[in-house]
């Protein structure tokens, strides 16, 4: 039985829990058999309850911070990633829960989208059945999901709620999703277009320079070949003239 309330001054419960946690870790197979240090064995299954109690004593009430893109635009018929990350004072463990819900833009009741607790739980019915999958990694504080085959009636607000006991309070993250026929050009698109155009222009310039040098070398080679041909013809003509003069001398 944990001893963290025995002979401990009032208000020092966390010190008692820490002591019991240390004893538990020192007696674990992780330390005794694997030779690891107690901090390296914090994830040992044997001491998880004490670990949770220790962090609860340190942070009795804490808030989870949620981060989302706030506004998102996607094309009808495509897939979209609803990104949601969080920060928490407490370490991420099996107590982590993630809840995604949806509020239609044209009004109506809130609808269930997705739930995560140790394993992902997809909706078994409703508009999001077979259209939403888990795309998060709690160890990296990422609890995002993928929404497939967007429809125009998917317009609305998607909420991301994360609870990581003892951090259970905090604002709920929201994403305003707009499903459109075509995506409007943003500054990022213009920047990408400018960079792409500059790259294409550079490629064209390089090709022109290479072709110019190639044709220039080819013309030089043709000129050199013509010069050689002219010299050969002149030499042949001189030889013929010499032969003709020699033959005249013999006839004389």
What is the chain-wise order of helices and strands? HHHEEEEEEEEEEEEEH
Which structural class should the secondary elements be placed in? alpha+beta
The profile of the biggest β sheet is: 6 strands, mixed
Poorly predicted sequence stretches spanning 5 or more consecutive residues = 1-13
Percent helix, as a range, is 25-40%
For the biggest β-sheet, the strand order reads: 3-13-11-6-7-8
Q: Tally the helices: what do you get? A: 4
Strand content: 15-25%
- The beta-strand count equals 13
Radius of gyration: 39 Å
Shape: elongated
Terminal CA distance reads: 140 Å
Mean pLDDT metric: 80
What is shown here, in short?
The chain is of the alpha+beta class. The protein has helices at residues 13-26, 29-32, 48-58, 187-251; strands at 62-63, 65-67, 70-75, 80-82, 85-87, 97-104, 111-117, 119-121, 132-134, 145-147, 156-163, 167-169, 173-180.
Draw up the topology in text.
Layout: H1 13-26, H2 29-32, H3 48-58, E1 62-63, E2 65-67, E3 70-75, E4 80-82, E5 85-87, E6 97-104, E7 111-117, E8 119-121, E9 132-134, E10 145-147, E11 156-163, E12 167-169, E13 173-180, H4 187-251
Helix pairs in contact: 1-3
How would you describe this structure to a colleague?
The chain is α+β, with helices and mostly antiparallel strands and 252 residues long. Helix content is 37%, strand content 24%. The protein has four helices and 13 strands. It has helices spanning 13-26, 29-32, 48-58, 187-251; strands at residues 62-63, 65-67, 70-75, 80-82, 85-87, 97-104, 111-117, 119-121, 132-134, 145-147, 156-163, 167-169, 173-180. A six-stranded mixed sheet has the order 3-13-11-6-7-8, with no helix packed on it. A three-stranded antiparallel sheet has the order 4-10-9, with no helix packed on it. A hairpin with a 1-residue loop joins strand 7 (111-117) and strand 8. Helix 1 runs antiparallel to helix 3 (48-58). The N and C termini lie far apart (140 Å). 17% of the residues are buried. The model is unreliable at 1-13 (pLDDT under 50).
């Amino acid at each position: 039985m944990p001893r963290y309330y025995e002979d401990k001054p009032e208000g020092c419960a966390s010190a008692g829990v820490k002591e019991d946690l240390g004893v538990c870790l020192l007696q674990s197979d992780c330390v005794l058999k694997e030779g690891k240090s107690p901090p390296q064995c914090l994830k040992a299954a044997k001491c998880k309850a004490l670990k949770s109690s220790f962090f609860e004593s340190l942070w009795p009430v804490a808030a989870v911070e949620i981060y989302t893109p706030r506004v998102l635009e996607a094309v009808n018929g495509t897939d979209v990633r609803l990104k949601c990350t969080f920060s928490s004072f407490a370490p991420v463990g099996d107590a982590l829960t993630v809840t995604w819900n949806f509020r239609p833009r044209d009004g109506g009741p809130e609808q269930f989208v997705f739930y995560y607790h140790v394993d992902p739980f997809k909706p078994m019915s409703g508009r999001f059945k077979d259209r939403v999958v888990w795309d998060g990694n709690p160890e990296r504080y990422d609890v995002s999901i993928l929404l497939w085959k967007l429809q125009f009636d998917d317009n609305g607000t998607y909420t991301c709620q994360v609870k990581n006991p003892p951090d259970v309070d905090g604002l709920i993250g929201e994403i305003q999703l707009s499903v459109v026929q075509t995506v409007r050009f943003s500054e990022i698109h213009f920047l990408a277009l400018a960079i792409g155009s500059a790259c294409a222009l550079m490629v064209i310039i390089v090709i022109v320079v290479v072709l110019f040098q190639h044709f220039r070398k080819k013309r030089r080679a043709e000129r050199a070949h013509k010069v050689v041909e002219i010299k050969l013809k002149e030499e042949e003509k001189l030889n013929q003239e010499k032969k003709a003069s020699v033959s005249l001398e013999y006839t004389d």
